[in-house]
Amino acid sequence: MNARLPIGVFDSGIGGLTVVRALAARLPHENIAYFGDTARVPYGVKSVETIAHYATQITTFLLDKQVKLLIVACNTMAAVASQAIRDLSPVPVLDVIDAGARAAVRATRSGRIGVIGTIATINSAAYTSAIHAHDAAVQVVPRACPLFVPLIEEGWLDHRVTRLTAEEYLIPLVQQDIDTLVLGCTHYPLLKPLLQEVVGGEVTLIDSADTVSEQAAALLASQALANPGTAVDYQYYVTDVPQRFQQVGERFLGRALAPVHVVNW
Ligand code: DGL
Fold first, then answer.
1. What is the pTM (predicted TM-score) of this model?
2. Among 160, 183, 207, which residue terminates a domain?
3. What is the pLDDT of residues 18-47, one digit of tens each?
4. Which of 52, 221, 252, 253 has the highest CB neighbour number within 10 Å of its CB?
């Protein structure tokens, strides 16, 4: 395997750029090929069959681009299609759910963990299974928060409508004495300051973007796959409206985006 090959990162749209941002900070010498399915986002309200079909299409696309590692940045795809993706891939696959579950189990003291995500992610109970695989005694309190994605895409990161929505979704979780909250959706890290205020300082927020980047760093080191080169190349592939991806994406990434390619299936 050529260590100079990029890491393939994929999401239903722009949200996975929070993972690219975390990777860029943790692994600044790695090349990245990012795929965002901007024509078909959001996935979180679609059926398991549809999400799995899209996920295998994207996996095949990135494998054709020759990547050395795949990172499923989308919680919804990881929740319902993780096995299908792994079955297809000859290269290692990491996903945000396993990373987030491990970090949450490490963080909790009370043994009560809240998990928020899209409807598909929460209905799949994938986080509950992943958390229980690490510690069966932990109590998981799940909650779907479908309004967060559109509010974040609108850029309402510190807006009274977002605050009210967050209170509505999260106060019941706090009332159930959670001490850890998993941000189980690519978009949610952008709401961290507001969510922290709503749940209070005693609740630890788990950002899967950070934890999956740590896992990627460990995996590349253990398999001698870290890029020996220094000239870093980021390629972005989307299925529609590249201008909006570029515009909103800069907010997710925290810096300018390289040229964006449009993929016609
Ligand atoms: N990327 C999705 C996730 O992490 C959120 C957006 C969507 O619903 O497609 O669950």
1. 0.95
2. 207
3. 999 999 999 999 999 999 999 999 999 999
4. 252
200: its two tokens = 């209070």
Which range marks the domain in which residue 115 is found?
Answer: 97-207
Domain count, the chain: 2
Strand partners, 32: 7, 234
Reported confidence tier of residue 229, pLDDT bands at 50, 70, 90: confident
- Given a contact cutoff of 8 angstroms between Cβ atoms, the answer to whether 181 and 116 are in contact is yes
Cβ of residue 208 lying under 6 Å from some atom of ligand 1 = no
170-208 per-residue burial string, b: 16 or more CB within 10 A, e: under 16? beebbeeebbbbbbbbbbbbbbeebbeebbeeebbbbbb
Residue 73 pairs with which residues in a beta bridge?
none
End-to-end CA distance of the chain: 27
Token pair, residue 263, equals 């993929």
Dig out the tokens for 48 from the structure.
Answer: 């398991």
CB 261 within 8 A of CB 238: yes
Distance 119 CA to ligand 1 centre (A): 10
- Would you tell me the crossing angle of helices 75-88 and 48-64 to the nearest 10 degrees? 60
Cα(210)–Cα(23) distance, rounded to whole angstroms? 8
CA of 50 to the centre of ligand 1 (A): 14
167 with 252, same domain: the answer is: no
Closest CA to 243 of 14, 62, 24, 10: 14
- Nearest residue (CA) to ligand 1, atom 2: 74
Nearest to 114 by CA among 145, 82, 76, 158: 145
